[in-house]
Amino acid sequence: MISVPITLEQLIQVVRQLEPEERAQVASALIELNLRSDLATLLAELYAQPPADDVTDDDIMAEIKAVRQQPRQA
Predict the structure, then answer these.
(1) What angle do CA 31, 37, 38 make, to 5 degrees?
(2) How far is CA 63 from its chain centroid?
(3) Torsion sign, CA atoms 16, 19, 23, 24
(4) How confident is the model at residue 60, as a pLDDT?
(5) What is the C-alpha end-to-end distance of the chain, expressed in Å?
(6) At what angle do helices 8-17 and 20-48 cross, to 10 degrees?
(7) Is the pTM higher than 0.85?
(8) Cβ contacts of 16 within 8 Å, gap of 6 or more
(9) What share of the chain is helix, strand, coil (3-state, %, to 5)?
(10) For 16-54, how does the pLDDT look when each residue is reduced to its tens digit (9 = 90+)?
(11) 23 with 15: CB under 8 angstroms?
């Protein structure tokens, strides 16, 4: 991998010179990185919470059966 020092302004100028499809790819990559960061934060918050022991497997199965017995709406 090659490392080239570049300022943020230089990077922005280069991205502006790209074709629209290439700029879209850059935008998608940046969005993906941001989403991964958000997901990692959410997962960390979730794992920091104490487990919810008040719901049993029997409770879950009873809820599933109740939902399955409801008539489907079109």
Answers:
(1) 90
(2) 28
(3) positive
(4) 92
(5) 55
(6) 130
(7) no
(8) 23
(9) 70, 0, 30
(10) 999 999 999 999 998 888 888 888 888 888 888 887 778
(11) yes
